[in-house]
Amino acid sequence: xxxxxxxxRTSRRNIKSQIGWKVAQRMREWSEDLDxxxxxxxxxxxxxxxxxDEEVAALLQARADEAERKRHEWIxxxxxxxxxxxxxxxxxxxxxxxxxxxxxxRHMQTKxxxxxxxxxxxxxxxxxxxxxxxxxxxxxxxxxxxxxxDDSRAxxxxxxxxxxxxxxxxxxxxxxxxxQQQKAQLHQEVLAEQRAYxxxxxxxxxxxxxKREMELQQNEVNRRKQLCDLxxxxxxxxxxxxxxxxxxxxxxxxxxxREDRQIYEELMQKxxxxxxxxxxxxxxxxxxxxxxxxRRRSEQERERAYLGTGCVLGQQQKQPYGRAVR
Amino acid sequence: xxxxxxxERRLAFVAEWYQAEAAIxxxxxxTYFVADEAVEVFDQRSKKTFLRRTKIPExxxxxxxxxxxxxVFGRQFDIVDYADESTRSNLAKYRKRGFxxxxxxxxxxxxxxxxxxxxxxxxxxxxxQMVQFTPKMVTQFLSGKPKNEVVSSVLMNELLAxxxxxxxxxxxxxxxxxxxxxxxxxxDGVNDSSSVKLSxxxxxxxxxxxxxxxxYCPATEEDVAIDLKFFFEDRLSIMKxxxxxxxxxxxxxxHSIKDGLxxxxxxxxxxxxxxxxxxxxxxMARINCEEFYEVYRGILPEYIPMVAQLASGVCMCLEIVxxxxxKSSYGEFRTFCGxxxxxxxxxLRPHTLRAKFGKSKVLNAxxxxxxxxxxxxxxxxxxxxxx
Lengths: 326, 387
What we know:
By secondary structure, chain A is mainly α.
């Protein structure tokens, strides 16, 4: 039994491991295959990329070549065109030169040139003459104008001269008279001022003298007045001192009297109070005696009332204790 | 609603973030403020603001709908539900889901134009796959349909004739628009039954009879829900199988789909001698993207942004077969895509897809298989391994 089980188990294990191994193998194969394919793909893509690259390069090269070729062609064409144009120009020039070189043509030309220049000269001369004539006319005109202007100016100047002379004469006489008058006036004014100054000086001297006299008088008066004042003051002071002393004395007497009265009154008061106290004390004593008697009476009555009933009437009151009470 | 309240219009969603380090899914409340194009993220577990109201210019109102993935500062939030009733009623009213089935003979000729016209009319393609019906499946599909028998049998025959393409559409009033398209009778026809006014581009497309009869779409929203469930949720394995024989994989990247270039790219592919033999639209998780791009790790310096780009939204996977069976589909299609860098492509191969639709080395519009041996591997990964 055990052997069979063992065998079964072993075979199962074997199968399992075999499966695992197979799977691993397949996986290995697969990865190898994948690597292989990757390699192939890489080679293919790489070669294609290279090919494409080449093609692109070739294309670009071809384009560049084409462009260059076109440029060359263009340049060539341009050069051809330019050369042609030059040839054309040269031909035209040559023709012209040939025409110029021919004799008859030259003769005719010279003649024409001569004729033209002659005509031009004539024309010029004519022009110049006309111009000169005209200039002369203008000059004469100007001369006339200037002459007239000069005449009028001279006339005016003459008038002005005359007028100025006349006015000058009048003005001089007037000025002289005015000058003299002014001088006299000034002289008079100076004199008057001198006189006024002299008078003022005199008055000032008189005033000075008077002032000095007045000051002397004033001093005298002052001194006299001061003496009188001093005397008056002394007497007044003495009078004041006397009245003061009298008042003091009167006041002292008043005070003494008042104090005496006060002492008297106090004594009287004490006396009265003592009397009153005595009366009150007496009445108080009688009253307390009465009260005590009344209380004792009432207690006696109560004891009597409760006598024999067995009631405890008198119970000692609780006394407070403690140091403060004791 | 007053003017101030209107200005403060906002959309609230419940979003999930997969924290790779802890291997847990955390739930957040993402609020989008329409007025200033700002986003606020609230952590529902810790009851704290995770990201305060911040302007993120890459996000627009069109990015916010249930089922979309938004990228907030490198962190991918999957929007799983509406967070409040007003958003639900608001968005549900305007952004309705529609369903359309393109029949075999129609999409071969008109798929690109059809997609282009829909996108130009603001109808987004949210999901899609190429399906191959078996008789059993057709019966199951047609079982709930209240159509008369003739139409049903015709439809059954048509569906059994070849692969069809089913698509989930999102747009304003999309069910009515599609019905109106199907019933359109040309510019001089009497349009009595529908009140919807079609745009000129739609009218132009649906003037063609084979387009009009080449699509099937349900008439009511309930039918739409049933059909969407049938095709995209029930996992009935009706997706068309890949050929795995002289075929290659193409992925139209999310940025092109977001920019509305899907129709143009598909049109280009179909018009340049390629056939689509399988198709599905898929929202890839970041881990799957990493796995898918594993072979580029360490080879291309743009590996990480490439992964981020592929994970940033819905992408469309196509199995491409060259129309000329003598040629190698892989080589032809790779040449048709052009160099990886659109700048170089614009310079060297101006007629390639990446030159026309790419923006940068990462946003280069389309992914195609780079190694000849990897075509089947990548196709298998996309169409078989990813559920």
